[in-house]
Amino acid sequence: MILYLVRRLLALAGVLLAIAAVTFLIFYVLPTDPAAAACGKTCSAERLADVRQYLGLDKPVWEQFADFLTGIFTGRTLGTGQFAVHCDFPCLGYSYENSLPVWNLLMDRLPVSASLAVGAAVLWLLLGLGAGVTAALRKDTATDKALMVGAVAAASLPVYFTSVMLIYGVIRVAGLLPYPSYQALTDDPLAWASNLLLPWTALALLYAAMYARQSRGSMIEAMAEPYIRTARAKGMPERTVVVKHGLRSGMTPILTIFGIDLGGLLAGAVITESIFGLPGIGRLFYGALVSSDQPVVLGVTLLAAFFIVVANLVVDLLYAVVDPRVRY
Amino acid sequence: MTTTASGAAPEAGPEAAPEAAPAGTPAKDVAPGSSPWQLARRELRRRPAVRVSLGVVLLFVLMALAAPWLSALGGWSPDEFDKAAIDPYLGGQPLGSLGGISPEHWLGVEPVTGRDLFARVVQGAQVSLLIAFAATAIVVLAGTAAGIAAGYFGGRTDAVLSRLMDLTMSFPSLIFMIAMLSVAKDVNRIVLMTSVIGLFGWPGVARVVRGQTLSLKHREYVDAARVGGASSWRILTRDILPGVSGPVIAYTTLLIPGMISTEAALSYLGVGVRPPTPSWGQMIAESVSFYETDPMYFVIPSVFLFLAVLAFTLLGDALRDILDPRGGRT
Amino acid sequence: MTKRTQLALATAVVAALALGASGCSDPKKGANSGPSAANPAAANDGKTLGGTPVKGGTLTVLSNQDFAHLDPARNWVMPAMDFGTRLLYRTLVTFKAEPGKGGSELVPDLATDLGTPSNGGKTWTFTLKEGVKYEDGSPVKAQDIKYNVERSFAPDLTGGPDYAAQYLAGTEGYKGPLDGKHLDSVKTPDDRTIVFELKRPVAEFSQTATLPTFAPVPQSQEKGTQYDARPFSSGPYKIETYDRDKKLVLVRNEHWDQKTDSVRKAYPDKFVVVMGLKGGQVDDRIIAGEGADASAIEYFNMRPESAPKVLPKPEIKARLLAESQGCTVMLHLNNSRAPFNDPKVREAMQYAVDKEAVITAGGGPALNEVATAYLPPALSGGKQADTLKIPASGDPAKAKELLKAAGKEHLKVSLAVSTGDKGKAEAFQQGLARAGIEVVIDTVDPGAYYDVIGDLSTTPDMTYTGWCPDYPSGSTWLPFVFDGRTIKDKGNQGNYAQFRDEATMKRIDEINAMADAKQANQAWIDLDAEIMKKSPSIPILLERKPLLVGPNIAGAYGHPVWTGTVDYGTVGLKDPSKSQG
User: What ipTM, to 2 d.p.?
Assistant: First the structure.
């Protein structure tokens, strides 16, 4: 088990390194000049050279990459003199646009994205698994068919369509909620929830539909396994059979996609965050792209990859808990 | 190692591609001796929803193929402005009700430009489906090749390819696609979008194929061919490939709606095709701000996108039930 | 007249245009020019909405984005300049707080007068008022202004105007005060006197001194690039909290003294800027005007698609500011290479372009007018000349004919526009297609647009930008846009057409030398017509700046200098008790 963990963690570091290298190459080899973007509208050649030097862009790419990597562990100092900028451990670079270390920006936005992703996840798990399991247990009944038709339809609606319709219906026409503007959970839990209600719903509808389809399938499969029959034959109450045996093995495949989905959403809800004006990581990323703020783009990419890789690891570890057949 | 043998489709960004995972449905009672195609036809006759989806899919494909002729039939080219159809003083609102639907403009016009919505939706179908199909083709070809190679040769090849699959699947694909599309400027956007979308999709197929290949590898007829001195190439193409084709076809059909959604999401975010070329996602993106003042403009491309994704999903579900009763899981 | 000042101001305006914050305003025209008379959006021209505000309350500003920079050494984008200099810091000189023509008048701000030139205009001396204080109660000193001027040289403090480097003497190799070096050409003989030594005579240095570079920053407050997040206030408000890209809250600077300030009224107790909202949602909220939104104004332009929700409704239209501007927006043709090095092809372009479609893409005739000459109306007697008399939608047949004569019947050309102008680019595309010209559109991020089109190695065949005069004189306009001697390899601006024409350059020098302003004015108009014949660029349109304000807003008008954005120094509330938060 320990050996397995060590191996997985090493692999995780390797994956992140590879992703960092690829991202770095893409953004630093392509013909966009972050120095020119930072320099401003009237930028003399001399000033451009100064800016380039200040940003460390005059060095060869591999050296910049090495600086970036060491910066993550040791922190870096950008510029010289009394007001040079210190970017402390873990330094993911420095945003010229926001005059802040990328790490600080990411940590500032993470609560928003996490609120969105986790809240939506709770909602879609409840809705999706509920619908999926219900449909599976009432296989081929009218309930099953209605649920599955609803699910396939909801899964085909793009999130931006659902979002706009929710804004129109709930805010503009019914006036039930104010226009969303993010409030921190710690400031005002009620405002936090009411502002996030629509984005949660928009995301959750989409994922719940997916999960309903998936969980119905695996539930039906699980319930057809021989040990379920055995359990029933032993006279176990149906409720116990479903919950203890059916759900447990039926949910294993769900766990996998859930890990990936949640990990991906933590730093990748670009569309939802931009439609609802949520100042999360996705919007930070989109804004950084528009203003050629490459350190932020790189930082978000790495963070997103980190979440996905960690989610995968956690899921694999959880298998041991959920599925008694899995051992490491 | 891991037990992550999921049937999860390419994670084209969970947000972007709503339909990702093929839902498992139980094995059907398959009459022995029927070919998959006979089964497919029988199944199609049995399920009206599938017939309708197939109809919709065919209609859209035809529409995409015949786009230039269809817009000629409507009398407007997709890029042609019609100033007579809008009111410039009201921010370019279409004249007339329902977004300017009239015998002149069958689906109304785009506000501001007065471009014909029918012509644009039809041409948008061409672009959206072209990108989705081409990206799917890339994914399926690359994924099948990699999956067969990994499964059949095993050992080091398998190790390397499997690591590569893990690595690719760890990429935050939507974020990466947006970034790559927004930095690349002077290239054909359709080719670029296709390859970028394709780049992140292949591991899903590869995993399915790898698993399938592993199980086929030690069947008697493969062993017999090997003992009989057949070359690896021959075995791969004659014995293994036909064996994996069923699940691959089912999986492919289920990939398409994800690809369509991904293209739409990227275009929605403004990193898609270049103006004036329309695609459904691009049209929806442009129309979002008009949803209240000109709802038809927003609804029309959305309905097309919705129907296309829905139809491909239903069709894929049906094909999977028939061709790959175990839902792609190994 | 000083070129750099206009250049500085005008570029800022142009940049604001590219960001979608279009235009600067031209108060002189108002309702007397032809089309605006019937224009539903022109009703509030030169007016102050909502009467005189009552002191107190919270004024909300709804924005789709964060400020580019609030650090006075880096603040050079139009609405941010208005916001910064009206609320957070004072400059040596500033513009009067008045709608219409009065707004372009200079008034002393930190200084006691508009500055005293000596040494033939090469030395400028300003004396500071007494009793001007920072937010901590310490006095504003001349040394602090010198310090901020020096900061504008620092390569880390990017984004700001560079004209200090262009004007001041002895700045070669100077890289700002962050490493302890100072400039000798800015002298501070005592705490209240500042002397600028210039390279050459600059008659309009008073104008220059309105820019945020001439705001004070005490050295003790220096935080390098971090200063951007918390500028130290010398104005009527100070920053309470600033959450980048989310929210900025300003509260009163208790040490600001109304008696020292003839411009700012500082009516509200608090300013709250909410950022990162969707443009359409900002419009919807202000139109609805419920709760705190009743006391809100918008930071950026109303979206054209909101026009149907505003223009047909008198009670909402009454809350729309739409000052027209003095800028002409043009399609610049790249004269330096084929196909636009051929004057016949360029002339054909005049006929091929469909200005009407471009105007519709820009929100329609309510918010734009067709431009028929280069000089904006304010510089040519209130109405633009129309020498070519081409219909607004163009004359493709004539264009085809001209192209045939030039032997170029099928052209394929590139056009770069900033992202927000995509719709207009498509309007150009279809217009030119009618004459057989194929256009490939490149949309460039607003931040990078001027880098791309200002670099002669990357600039495409056509670019789309505007140019604004700083004050009503042709000398602030034609020489910047069409004098071939201003072309630079990198950072080229103004003459985006790369138009090098001996006759034009000669005439520019002659007119600049004219002593009689009236005669010179007519000469500029004539030169405009001459250049039109050579068609280096195509004048396209004149824009307005549409901004909605909430029903509880008072004292709101579009300031002519700050691109017709609301003057933040004098805006306030009708009933402070109705504002929340």
Answer: 0.85
